[in-house]
Description:
Blueprint: H1 3-19, H2 23-48, H3 50-63, H4 65-75
Helix pairs in contact: 1-2, 2-3
Amino acid sequence: MSASVVALCIWVVAGSIIAVLPMRHQMIPGALLLLSGLALIVWIGAENGWTWSVVALAIFASLFRRPLVALIRHASGKPVEPPRD
């Protein structure tokens, strides 16, 4: 197994751990995971091919579906509801 896939597995476990935290404690670690996830997808694609990048992108979208929707709403000028605990 390549180093990028091992890093992806660690990234998924870290995302799962952060997901069980209260919302107020998720912001900074979640933002770091969001940024590192994009770099990880590129690394996976470079090392293993585009097929695995698509799989990694699906995992990324699954873990960050709510923040990504909020970013899209914010970018389009629509109101964004604050997260509830």
